[in-house]
């Protein structure tokens, strides 16, 4: 165990870090070293940019970058960039986008853009005494934070409001400053945190120096100052709507009215039952996260905010809703998305920069709309599958493809396997037995399947990567 503990790891250069790792955790395997090194970028400049995003880097972790075209959102057509490792997600988003393209597309509106931050503090005084000096305190806090807020104010943002909250009925001496912000096109984390830390320092000093307080009251303890990732007032709604009969032919045995009815029930189930809601919302996040990642926004922040929002009334529920009223099917999602299109990694990551270019250099508000529409599309596609063919039909095709790549099937073998498994359950052993049987038969026939080996782009890349 002792030999796995290291001092000064961060001081080693990348090669030294990797060597240490291979020696201590991979039994000096050359193959393991090659796997890590194989993903180093050959362009030094780009590699340094990537290394700069994190610490102790020993390699890069690739994710597929896909495109879901034909997204009509508020009358504008987008090709949406999606970074995701799960098969079927981009295909599902594309199919839903195409479906709604001829039915008016997606409507999206930003309901509000306020972000929040908090200064948590402990004070052995009464709320009314702080309240009495609060206006004066706010003025000093804002004056002392002016060097942080001046630029944001020029861009039309800044601090919107500061509230003093009393939590002493839950925890002795616990108070809070709840601050709301407008951060325009930036996600604004650095800006918000800088302002909050400045407020915290001012608060401590202001109270310590104020003549109106007793000796004990002059000791105020700021515990922490940090933004809140729960942003229920940074909210976007995306929706689709059409007359039920326009839902058209979905699949064998289900007409438009039955489809709408089953869809409505599926959304209701996700509103009632938290177990289903979690999976239902995961489907929404499949779309949301993929665009958030492609634009180098903070997907962990988005995840935590959306799930907190899903539980806003005390029970975890579906983020999307559905109605069928007067023959009109409407399906929508409300999502709290604190996104940015300037700052952070958005312009530093070369592909994030391209993603934003692909989306037409959107404002943060426009990006919120695109992300919400993609989440809704994903949810629509998932629920559509679940209530009609079942989810496995589509997934199994991808599963079969992955197994065939693993078995290094050639073109002929792929063709035969796809035909054979058309109406059968796909399992690894089933496919392996089929391929082995097919190869044996071919060998007996004296023919060698010399078709090209099937490769995904990934394996092609690996085999063509520079040494
Ligand atoms: C899989 O990644 C997502 C789904 O499970 C979502 C859902 O069940 O609604 C298909």
Outline the structure in words.
The structure is a single chain. The protein folds into 4 domains: 50 residues, no CATH class; 206 residues, 3-hydroxy-3-methylglutaryl-coenzyme A Reductase, Chain A, domain 2; 114 residues, Alpha-Beta Plaits, CATH 3.30.70.420; 56 residues, no CATH class. It contains 17 helices and 10 strands. A hairpin with a 2-residue loop joins strand 9 and strand 10. The chain starts with 13 loop residues before the first helix and ends with a helix. The protein binds (R)-mevalonate.
Structure described in brief:
By secondary structure, the protein is α+β, with helices and mostly antiparallel strands. The protein has 17 helices and ten strands.
Tally of alpha and pi helices: 17
CATH structural class of the largest domain: Alpha Beta
CATH topology of the largest domain: 3-hydroxy-3-methylglutaryl-coenzyme A Reductase, Chain A, domain 2
In terms of structural class, how would the helical and strand content be classed? alpha+beta
What's the rounded overall pLDDT mean? 93
* C-alpha Rg (nearest Å): 28 Å
Shape: globular
CATH superfamily of the largest domain: 3-hydroxy-3-methylglutaryl-coenzyme A Reductase, Chain A, domain 2
Q: Specify the CATH architecture of the largest domain.
A: Alpha-Beta Complex
Number of domains: 4
């Amino acid at each position: 165990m002792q030999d796995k503990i290291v001092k000064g790891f961060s001081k080693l250069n990348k090669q030294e870090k990797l060597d240490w790792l291979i020696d201590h955790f991979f039994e000096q395997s050359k193959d393991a070293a090659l796997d890590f090194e194989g993903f180093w970028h050959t362009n030094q400049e780009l590699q340094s940019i990537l290394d700069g995003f994190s610490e102790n880097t020993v390699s890069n972790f690739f994710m597929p970058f896909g495109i879901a075209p034909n997204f009509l959102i508020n009358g504008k057509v987008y090709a949406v960039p999606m970074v995701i490792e799960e098969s079927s997600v981009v295909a599902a988003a594309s199919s839903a986008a195409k479906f709604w393209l001829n039915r008016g597309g997606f409507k999206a509106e930003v309901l509000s853009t306020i972000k929040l931050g908090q200064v948590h503090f402990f004070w052995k005084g009464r709320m009314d005494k702080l309240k009495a000096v609060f206006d004066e305190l706010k003025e000093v806090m804002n004056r002392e934070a002016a060097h942080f807020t001046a630029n944001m104010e020029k861009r039309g943002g800044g601090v919107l409001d500061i509230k003093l909250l009393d939590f002493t009925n839950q925890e002795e001496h616990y108070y809070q400053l709840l601050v709301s912000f407008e951060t325009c096109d930036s996600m604004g984390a650095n800006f918000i945190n800088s302002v909050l830390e400045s407020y915290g320092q001012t608060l401590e000093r202001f109270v310590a120096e104020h003549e109106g307080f007793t000796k004990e009251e002059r000791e105020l303890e700021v515990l922490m100052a940090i933004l809140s990732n729960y942003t229920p007032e940074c909210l976007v709604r995306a929706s689709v709507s059409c007359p039920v009969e326009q839902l058209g032919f979905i699949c064998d045995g289900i007409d438009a009215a039955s489809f709408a009815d089953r869809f409505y029930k599926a959304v209701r189930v996700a509103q009632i039952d938290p177990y289903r809601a979690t999976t239902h919302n995961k489907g929404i996040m499949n779309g949301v996260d993929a665009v958030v990642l492609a634009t180098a926004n903070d997907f962990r922040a988005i995840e935590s905010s959306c799930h907190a929002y899903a539980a806003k009334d005390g029970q975890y529920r579906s983020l999307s809703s559905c109605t069928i009223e007067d023959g009109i099917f409407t399906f929508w999602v409300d999502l709290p998305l604190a996104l940015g299109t300037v700052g952070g990694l958005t312009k530093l990551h070369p592909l994030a920069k391209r993603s934003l270019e692909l989306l037409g250099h959107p404002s943060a508000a426009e990006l919120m709309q695109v992300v919400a529409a993609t989440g809704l599309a994903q949810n629509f596609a998932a629920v559509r599958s679940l209530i009609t063919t079942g989810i496995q039909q589509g997934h199994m095709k991808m599963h079969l493809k992955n197994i065939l790549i693993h078995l290094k099937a050639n073109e002929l073998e792929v063709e035969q396997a796809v035909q054979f498994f058309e109406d059968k359950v796909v399992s690894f052993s089933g496919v392996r037995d089929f391929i082995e049987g097919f190869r044996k038969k071919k060998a007996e026939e004296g023919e060698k399947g010399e078709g090209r080996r099937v490769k995904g782009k990934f394996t092609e890349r690996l085999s063509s990567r520079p040494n």
